[in-house]
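S2.1 Query sequence (GAF and ANTAR domain-containing protein)
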Amino acid sequence: MCPTPEELGARNRRLAHEGVSAAEKLLVERYGLSDAGEGFELLKAASQQSNVKLHTLADAVLRVPAPDHGAEVWFPGRRRYSPPRLPGLMLEPGSCGSQGAVLKAALHRVLSITQTPMGNVQLRDGSRLHLARHTGLNRYFTDFFAFVEGPTTLCAQAAAERRQVTVRDVARADVFDEASRYAILQTGSRAAHSVPLTTGRGTVVGMVSSHHERPLTGFSTAQLQALQQTGTDVGRWLSWHWNTVVLDALERLHATATRPPH
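Output structure tokens follow.
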């Protein structure tokens, strides 16, 4: 059965809360905080000051090895790098360090290549893909695919296989379960193409997918090469963002948590 909008809303709230709640508990234990509320305030302050999404920062708290006990800094001796170039993306001057601006430009680039107004960007969030950007897709679709965990979607297949995957006809493709198929068809998409965002080491850190109102016959070699280059460029930028901006936010959080009381 296909989940109702109410069921999807409840699921998304639960999944969004899980990571933040786990990070709050870890911070209480690590820094001897009074309660989870104090852990949340730490996360929120560092998130706002660093322009990093709260759920991204919570995921980093859970995934990154803890600082040494009593250390003043979390990452001593960490080397810093400038953001990698994104030659194929149309970015406003001064926005090359903004994840939101880069994801917006990446989606625009992919949809320009594939010639469709519908698409979305997902980022790796622990073991899930989390919807980060979308255009031309309705509320049921974006709620249904807000979090992707199972293998019965195009984006999950492309991520697992670390390659571009085309579904020429959503109605007939074996990759989808019926709930996923319905969520795609009801938004007006009859075909889709997913491009993995990969780091220099080939790790998939996200996905960009285009959706098409008619079944596809495929893409040209030039189109596939341009999509591949976009996936590589954006994946490397996201790796830089994690290792620079997100780790800076963790460092800021650690400094706040260990600051002597006035």
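The mean pLDDT is 92. The CA atoms of residues 4 and 10 lie 10 Å apart.
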